[in-house]
């Protein structure tokens, strides 16, 4: 059963890595569907990891050679994925901070224009 979970985990990790390579650091350049599919892969991978964790809990972990190879493959992919995820996280975080600062700045100007009256007239008096 552990081997099955490890194989699924490798499959999801490969898909995650391929999907991650297509994501750009600028949020505006990514399609929402692309980010949603990436998020879905992360969630599915998390489920597999928790199932594998449940399978391992309280049992001896004598790994077979096949399982050791799968784990080594996962470790190699993680070494590539983790820095890229960190880079994207930092980039997206900075962009969201800039957007929030821009919204806060625009809200400061709104009260100045809040009490403008559109009902009225201007009368020009000539002498």
TrEMBL record:
It comes from the Bacteria. This is Flagellar protein FliT. It comes from Exobacillus caeni.
């Amino acid at each position: 059963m552990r081997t099955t979970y490890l194989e699924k985990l490798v499959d999801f990790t490969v898909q995650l890595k391929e999907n991650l390579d297509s994501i750009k650091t600028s949020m505006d350049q990514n399609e929402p569907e692309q980010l949603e599919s990436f998020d879905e892969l992360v969630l599915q991978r998390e489920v597999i990891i928790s199932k594998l964790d449940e399978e391992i809990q309280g049992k001896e972990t004598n790994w077979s050679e096949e399982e050791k190879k799968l784990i080594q493959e996962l470790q190699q992919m993680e070494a590539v994925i983790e820095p890229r995820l960190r880079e994207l996280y930092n980039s997206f975080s900075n962009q969201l901070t800039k957007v929030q600062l821009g919204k806060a700045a625009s809200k400061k100007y709104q009260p100045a224009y809040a009490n403008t009256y559109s009902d009225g007239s201007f009368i020009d008096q000539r002498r």
